[in-house]
């Protein structure tokens, strides 16, 4: 797994790697039981890998970190949230094609 794609295991880890990041971080909220998540999150990973020098991605399992789901106002999965300056700036909920995910990442990347 490239260093730009990482799993969040604790709230402290989320704070350190996402909220305190100087750059935008795409956060993929998912659950292992969610069939749509098994499709969308790998699509996001592919987009991030294409842009690996520019974009970071954090993966959050909402079954393990329910408080992060609530604190980030995530109401369903799969969901992608863009965090900048410690705040959620934009979200992309539900299923999308890879081109739509690519556009979302490009539109919300610091570059």
UniProtKB/TrEMBL annotation:
Annotated ranges, domain Thioredoxin: 1-110
Keywords: Disulfide bond, Redox-active center
Cellular component GO terms held in the UniProt record: mitochondrion
Keyword field contains Protease: no
Coiled coil spans: none
Disulfide bonds: 34-37
GO molecular-function term, one example from the UniProt record: protein-disulfide reductase activity
Pfam families on file: Thioredoxin
Source superkingdom: Eukaryota
Family the UniProt entry places it in: Belongs to the thioredoxin family.
Biological process according to GO: cell redox homeostasis
This protein's name: Thioredoxin
Xref: PANTHER family: THIOREDOXIN, MITOCHONDRIAL
InterPro entries per UniProt: Thioredoxin (IPR005746), Thioredoxin-like_sf (IPR036249), Thioredoxin_CS (IPR017937), Thioredoxin_domain (IPR013766)
Gene3D superfamilies according to UniProt: Glutaredoxin
């Amino acid at each position: 797994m490239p260093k730009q794609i990482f799993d969040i295991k604790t709230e402290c880890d989320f704070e350190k790697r996402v909220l305190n990041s100087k750059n935008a971080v795409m956060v993929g909220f998912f659950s292992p039981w969610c069939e749509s998540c098994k499709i969308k999150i790998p699509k996001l990973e592919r987009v991030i890998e294409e842009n690996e020098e520019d974009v970071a991605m954090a993966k959050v399992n909402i079954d393990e970190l329910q408080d992060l789901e609530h604190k980030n106002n995530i109401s369903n999965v799969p969901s992608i949230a863009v965090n900048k300056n410690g705040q959620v700036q934009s979200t992309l909920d539900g299923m999308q094609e890879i081109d739509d995910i690519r556009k979302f990442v490009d539109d919300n990347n610091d570059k």
